[in-house]
Design a protein that fits this description.
This is Reverse transcriptase Ty1/copia-type domain-containing protein. Helix content is about 35%, strand content about 15%. It is of the alpha+beta class. The chain folds into 2 domains: about 1-45, no CATH class; about 45-160, 2-Layer Sandwich (Nucleotidyltransferase, domain 5), CATH 3.30.420. The two termini are about 25 Å apart.
């Protein structure tokens, strides 16, 4: 797990594999060995920070809807870039079973927005605050429509955040 702090490219697969630590099967071991081989072949890869004139905070969120075959829960993921580099990322299984991709994406977007608020406060403490808002990118049109229109109706009133 500690490698995911410097290698966001393996975050998702390590997150999924860590769910099976207590009951690992041969297929999990094969996948883990593949990750190790990938790391060995890409040992020169990592996060590169370059100088940028503008320190704009941007967030990106995505999900795999009902990706867990055991309990049909979705996995949320987000990352943030500041300037030209990704510096904060997370992959986590959602606590509830989403009934639609829009619901799962909305939950992920909410977690991303909460992290954005925390990062903006951290930037203020470091005297790096920006007057611009933080953009959070979501790839689901229904989620965008729900976030722009806070009126609850029959299709969204069951959302639990």
């Amino acid at each position: 797990m500690y490698l995911t702090a410097t290698r966001p490219d393996i975050l998702y697969v390590v997150s999924v594999l860590s769910r099976f630590l207590n009951c690992a099967k041969e297929s999990h071991m094969i996948a883990a060995k593949r990750v190790v081989r990938y790391l060995k072949g890409t040992s020169c890869h990592g996060v590169k920070f370059t100088k940028s004139k503008e320190l704009k905070l941007s967030g990106f969120s995505d999900i795999d809807w009902a990706g867990s075959a055991d309990d049909m829960k979705s996995t949320s993921g987000y990352c943030f870039s500041l300037g030209s580099a990704c510096f904060s990322w997370c992959s986590k299984m959602q606590e509830i079973v989403a009934q639609s991709t829009a619901e799962a994406e909305f939950i992920a977007a909410t977690a991303t927005a909460n992290q954005a608020l925390w990062l903006r406060k951290l930037m203020q403490d470091l005297h790096l605050s920006s007057k611009e808002g933080t953009e959070v990118y979501v790839d689901n049109q229904a989620t965008l429509a729900i976030s722009h229109n806070p009126v609850f109706h029959g299709r969204t009133k069951h959302f639990k955040l």
